[in-house]
Design goal:
Length: 204
């Protein structure tokens, strides 16, 4: 099994670009909102939020109650509302309205962990980074690319295992693959494009 073969086959099924790089601020805030929330719910809430408050300055000056109302669908919205308002304030005041493009500074923002920071680098700036969410962590271990217990360990091991040219694509590929085929429960192995490469395949 080679990493290049896995990536090549998945790219044929899921051409990169569905998760287009866009405004770094909106990527950052949307990723914070996505924590413990389904993608479709995050998308709806983000669209409503950015339609009214699309810049750091606008969100920083927004009424907290109004923010809550706009993102009410997402999990823990009462916690996330003041958090994203504070992130916006810091970016507006300390970084002149520009989202920082290095991971250490991103990690200094409230509520921003490694997944959120790396997603911002990948989708907001188009940088080479390994963004690990539950799909990436689960599938990387299922495929035997890594043997890890936490997303943080998975990120570190994937940085070693993957050629750098694949870093910024691995999140989108495994997220889409995980939603469509390699599900946590009852994976659709009968239509898997990399079935014979999976250590868990008993029929190889």
């Amino acid at each position: 099994m080679t990493v290049d073969t896995i990536i090549s086959r998945l790219k044929k099924c899921y051409p990169p670009g569905k998760f287009n790089s866009t405004d770094p601020f909106q990527v950052l805030i949307a990723t914070v909102l996505s924590q413990r929330t389904r993608d479709e719910v995050t998308d709806r809430a983000s669209e409503k939020l950015f339609a009214k408050y699309g810049t750091p300055a606008a969100l920083a000056s927004a009424d907290a109650g109004d923010i809550e109302a706009l993102i009410r669908e997402v999990g823990f919205y009462r916690i996330k509302a003041p958090r994203i308002k504070e992130i916006a304030r810091i970016i507006d005041n300390d970084f002149k309205g520009r989202v920082p493009d290095d991971i250490d500074t991103l990690l200094s923002l409230p509520g921003v962990g490694r997944k959120t920071a790396n997603c911002t680098l990948v989708y907001g700036f188009g940088k080479d980074a390994v963004a690990v969410d539950t799909h990436v962590h689960r599938i990387s271990n299922r495929l035997g690319l890594v043997m890890t217990k936490t997303p943080e360990e998975t990120e570190a091991k994937l940085r070693e295992a993957l050629p750098k040219k694949h870093w910024k694509h691995i999140n989108e590929l495994l997220v889409r693959f995980g939603q469509d085929v390699c599900r946590p429960i009852a994976p659709r192995c009968s239509i898997c494009p990399i079935l014979e490469l999976c250590p868990g395949n008993k029929n190889k």
